[in-house]
Design a protein that fits this description.
Keywords: Membrane, Transmembrane, Transmembrane helix. InterPro entries: Kinase-like_dom_sf (IPR011009). This is Aminoglycoside phosphotransferase domain-containing protein. This protein is an alpha+beta fold and 312 residues long. The chain folds into two domains: 128 residues, Phosphorylase Kinase, domain 1 (2-Layer Sandwich); 177 residues, Aminoglycoside phosphotransferase (APH), C-terminal lobe (Aminoglycoside 3'-phosphotransferase, Chain: A, domain 2), CATH 3.90.1200.10. Helix content is 43%, strand content 17%. The protein has eleven helices and twelve strands. The strands form three sheets. It has a six-stranded antiparallel β-sheet with strand order 1-2-3-4-7-6, with helices on one face. A hairpin with a 2-residue loop joins strand 10 and strand 11. Helix 10 runs antiparallel to helix 11. The longest helix is centred in the first third of the chain and has 21 residues.
């Protein structure tokens, strides 16, 4: 079924929790087979992306008019967290694409337009316009930081223009959500890292002192997956992609991701200060570090890096 044939609503909290539990016990080690035909589109080439190929089958397709599109496909019998993330991405894209187009931000910042969502019995495919851009990770570190800082500030500006009805269409990640989900995150992190249990618990208890500050920070539109390979550059335009995790949450969230993203590249302190890449909330840093360590539980280097951040 295509988008016009179905009524879409943002995922409920129950669906997200259920989906997360399904994902936890799902074997994500097997690469998804990219469909050769999706609706009117036929596969031209597969795309391998380290942070997505285990959860989605992605590729470049074309229709009968030889118009290229990018398609991200979820495949499964039971709807897990990845399915609901894909659904959230479609809903968010519609809002984000429209808000960017209505402001002067659209002269520089863009997002690929989601054209349609095609759902079948055991799959869901999100069709985007194709952007033949260059990934931000191919540029020098200073330009990476500058570009992501520009995008972060742009999302803050868009947040100021959101109406009450628009906010209702967006997923919310409040301080209460982080507190209530913390025991689960800690439990899973300890299972994956039994030798680091004491370090994990000490870090979490210490970070609890900054929860009040997080609660007072309010909610803004945040990407929540700020990584350089999620940004494309083409013709002096910056394209923000992979918005499946976007939500209304603390303004500290993307700042913390920026810090963690570039800390591993060991840039100069002056570079961090110039673009105000700082940690403003220790609880959020601990939470994101643990969550990332779980996400990279089969990647020894990344897992070790995020666990190290707990004590810094």
């Amino acid at each position: 079924m295509k988008t016009k044939d179905i009524k879409l609503k943002k995922p409920t909290m129950f669906q997200i929790i259920f989906g997360a539990l399904i994902s936890l016990f799902k074997n994500e080690q097997i690469k998804k087979e990219v469909p050769k035909i999706i609706g009117e589109y036929r596969l031209i080439s597969e795309i391998e992306k380290d942070n997505d190929f285990r959860r989605f089958a992605v590729g470049i397709y074309e229709n009968n008019k030889r118009e290229k599109v990018f398609i991200k496909t979820w495949i499964g019998k039971v709807r897990d967290l990845s399915y609901f993330s894909l659904l959230n991405e479609y809903l968010v894209n519609d809002l984000l694409y429209r808000k960017i187009s209505q402001t002067t931000l659209g002269d520089k910042i863009k997002t690929p337009q989601a054209l349609e969502l095609i759902q079948n019995k055991n799959s869901a495919s999100l069709v985007f316009e194709f952007i033949d851009g260059k990934s931000l990770d191919k540029y020098p570190v200073e330009y990476q930081i500058e570009t992501l800082s520009v995008l972060h500030n742009a999302l803050l500006e868009i947040s100021k223009t959101l109406t009450a009805n628009e906010k209702k269409t967006l997923t919310k990640r409040t301080t209460l959500f982080y507190i209530s989900s913390l025991p689960f995150i800690v439990f899973i992190a300890c299972i994956y890292n039994p030798r680091s249990v004491i370090k994990i618990l000490k870090s979490i208890f210490k970070s609890l002192l900054s929860i009040a500050e997080l609660y007072k920070s309010g909610l803004v539109l945040a990407h929540r997956d700020f990584h350089v390979d999620n940004i494309l550059l083409l013709d002096n335009n910056i394209y923000l992609t992979d918005c499946e995790s976007m939500a209304l949450t603390s303004p500290f969230y993307d700042e913390t991701l920026l810090f963690l993203e570039f800390q591993k590249k060991e840039p100069s302190i002056e570079l961090f200060k110039r673009y105000e890449v700082v940690i403003r909330n220790s609880f959020l840093k601990a939470y994101i570090s643990l969550h990332s360590a779980i996400s990279f539980h089969d990647d020894i280097a990344n897992r070790a890096y995020y666990l190290t951040q707990l004590n810094q």
